[in-house]
Amino acid sequence: MASKLENPFIMSFILPEHAQALYEHQYDKKLDKQPPIDEDDLAEMSVIIYDSVRQDFAVKVSWFKA
Question: Could you say which of 1, 28, 34, 45 would form a disulfide bridge with 64 (CB–CB 3.0 to 4.6 Å)?
Fold first, then answer.
């Protein structure tokens, strides 16, 4: 069982505003800066996405901070 310090969302009472602030803080820590993408990489990603839609296979998507 995780302690309250490791996971503050298991507390018995927490204000909604505080819960939202904690969630946003954790979410911001997970995002990384976007690496530079050149035209060749962008074209390759477009082909992979197009093929995944046409042939129905999964792709991994990563989100970055703007």
Answer: 34
Cβ atoms 27, 64 nearer than 8 A: no
Give 3 or 22, the one with higher predicted confidence. 22
Please give the Cα distance from 30 to 65 (Å, whole number).
10
Say what the pTM is.
0.46
The Cα 35–Cα 42 span in angstroms is 12
Greatest Cα-to-Cα distance within the chain, rounded to the nearest angstrom:
52
In angstroms, the Cα distances linking 25 to 31, 42, 65 are: 10, 30, 13
